[in-house]
Amino acid sequence: MTADGPRPRARPEVPYEVLLAQEALLLNVSEEILRMLDRNGRSRTSLARDLGMSERALAEILAGRNITLRTLATIASALGARVDLVMVDLSRLPRPVPHG
């Protein structure tokens, strides 16, 4: 306990591989949303309007911030799509052969 109250808990360090996987997923989500916009001939402005959110809020989502699975499902629905999730068992993938 400190003079200001309870001491905040230390957050465990996130392994690099986990951070990389998180960023890759966020990038994939953004790219897929942009791909669907392009396929449907839609603008970010029209999507934001249909979602009832500001263009800035949509930009934050596309930048990988402030996105939940519910929000992603709502965006997909507004684009006439749905989200399917596939988890890949990395232990079953062939390992790359080192060059050298």
What's the arrangement of secondary structure elements?
Elements: H1 16-39, H2 44-51, H3 55-62, H4 69-78
Helix pairs in contact: 2-3
Structural description of this entry:
It is a single chain. The protein is an all-alpha fold and 100 residues long. It has four helices and no strands. The longest helix has 24 residues, at 16-39. α2 (44-51) packs across α3 (55-62). It is flat and about 45 Å long. The N and C termini lie far apart (55 Å). 5% of the residues are buried. The protein has a single domain, classed as Orthogonal Bundle (434 Repressor (Amino-terminal Domain)). The mean pLDDT is 90.
Features of this protein?
100 residues; mainly alpha; 434 Repressor (Amino-terminal Domain); 4 helices
Characterize this entry briefly.
This protein has 100 residues and is an all-alpha fold. It is built from four helices and no strands. The chain is flat.
